[in-house]
Amino acid sequence: MPDPYSALAAGYDAVMAHVDYPMWAATVQGIVRRHHPQARSVAELGCGTGALAVALQPYGPPPSGYDYRAFDGSPAMVEQARETVRRAGRPVALGVLAFGETVPGPPADLVVLVYDGLNYLLDLDAVTALFESVRDALAPDGIAVVDQSTPANSVNHAADGFDDAGETDAFSYLRTSRYDAGARLHTTEFELTLPDGRRLRETHVQRAYTMDEVEAAAAAAGLAAVAAYDEFEDVPADDATERVHWVFARADSEARPA
Ligand SMILES: C[S@@+](CC[C@H](N)C(=O)[O-])C[C@H]1O[C@@H](n2cnc3c(N)ncnc32)[C@H](O)[C@@H]1O
C-alpha cells in the first residue's frame, strides 16, 4: 500500500504529543470491563508507533498483563513501535499487516483499532474486508473496539481548513488539512523538512463515514454492533458525535457478549 507515514513515522509521537494515550487506554479498558471482563488476549490493528499498546497491555490479567500483538500496515510505524515497546519494556509482539489481511495468531479476546485507521480505507468494500478480518480474528466470545471519525468531526474542525506548523527531532513540518464535504474526503498534507534540508510531502486521505455506513459494513462482515459510544464517554453516540467507539461481537456466536 502507499505509505503516507514513511517519513512522518520518525516524528509522529511529537506531532501527536497532544493525544492522551493513557486516557485512551483507560477508556478502552473501561469498555472491556463492561463488555468482556475475562479478556486475556489482544490483537491491535493500525497500532502506529505503539503508544496505545504500551498503555493498554499492562491492564491485562496479572502477573504480566494482556497477551498482546500489534500490527500496522506501515513498516516505518512498526519500526517506531518496536522502539516504543523496547523502551517501555512491555511484552508486545509486532508485525506489518495491511487492513483486511488475515491477522496472525490464535483467536483474540479483544481486537482494537483506534484513531482513524478505518477512515483511511476509502471505500466501503475495503471497510467490509477489514471487518471480515476482524471477525475471523475474534474468539467466539470476543469483542472488537473500533473507532471512527465522523463527518461531524471533519465539518467542525477542517471545513474552513486547518493549518499548523511544528518542529520535531526528525523534521519540521507544515500541515494543511481540508475537508470536501461533498465527497466526505478529508485530506491532510504534511510538508516535511529534514535536518539535511531535504523536503518531503506526505498526503493522508481519509473518508468520513456515517455511523449507518460503518454499522452496515460490519453487519455485512458478520459483526453485530453491541454498543456505540460517544467520544470517550459511557454514553451512546449520536449524530453530533465526532468520534465513535464501536463495540462489535461475532454475529454468529452463541457466546456473544451483550
Ligand atoms: C492516525 S494513525 C493512528 C495510529 C495509532 N493507532 C495511534 O493511535 O497513534 C493511523 C494508522 O493507520 C495505519 N494504516 C492506515 N491505512 C492502513 C492500512 N490500509 N492497513 C494497515 N494500517 C493502515 C497507518 O499506518 C497509521 O499508523
Walk me through this protein's architecture.
With 258 residues, this protein is an alpha/beta fold. It folds into 2 domains: 8-151 and 210-250, Rossmann fold; 153-206, N-terminal domain of TfIIb. It is built from 7 helices and 11 strands. It has helices spanning 12-15, 21-35, 51-56, 75-88, 124-137, 151-158, 211-220; strands at residues 41-44, 67-72, 92-96, 108-113, 138-149, 162-167, 172-180, 185-193, 199-207, 223-230, 243-250. The protein has a 7-stranded mixed beta sheet with strand order 3-2-1-4-5-11-10, sandwiched between helices. The chain has a 4-stranded antiparallel beta sheet with strand order 6-7-8-9. α5 packs across α7. The longest helix is centred in the first third of the chain and has 15 residues, at 21-35. It starts with 11 loop residues before the first helix and ends in an 8-residue tail after the last strand. Residues 1, 5, 46-48, 51-52, 72-74, 77, 98-99, 114-117, 120 line the site of S-adenosylmethionine (SAM).
CATH architecture of the largest domain: 3-Layer(aba) Sandwich
Instruction: Look up the CATH topology of the largest domain.
Output: Rossmann fold
Overall tally of domains: 2
Uncertain segments of ≥5 residues (pLDDT<50)? none
Percentage of residues in DSSP E strands: 25-35%
Number of H/I helices? 7
Question: What gyration radius follows from the Cα positions, in whole Å?
Answer: 18 Å
Q: What's the CATH C level of the largest domain?
A: Alpha Beta
Terminal Cα separation, in Å? 36 Å
Strand order of the largest sheet: 3-2-1-4-5-11-10
Main sheet overview? 7 strands, mixed
